[in-house]
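USER:
Before I trust my own judgement here, I would like a peer's view. Write it directly below this note and I will take it from there.

ASSISTANT:
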Amino acid sequence: MATEIKYVQSKAAAEIAQAKAEIAQAKADVARVEDKAAAEIAQAKAEIARVEDKAAAEIARVEDKRTMSEVFWKAEVERFKREVQLAYTQDYEPYQAALVDKRKKRGGTGGSEEKEEEN
């Protein structure tokens, strides 16, 4: 009977040792999977940051282009307003007369080609 008890105890100890080894292996597998998942998450976050930076740069470029276009067209509108204002005020005739005097002083003929150059 004592032999039987020792046999059962040794068999149980072997099963306990095997179970502990399996638990240790399972913990190692879990740690490996967690490390792999953490690495993939870090890589995905880096990719997201890269894409966000690229998108932000593109947005900034487009906004800058739009702003420059706005500035250009605002200047064109102001120039046109000034030309219209000049054409429909009393200042227009003296302005034109000054241009004609200027041409005469230079010895110009007053042709349409010179008018285009002055404007």
The helical segments are 2-87, 92-106, 112-118.
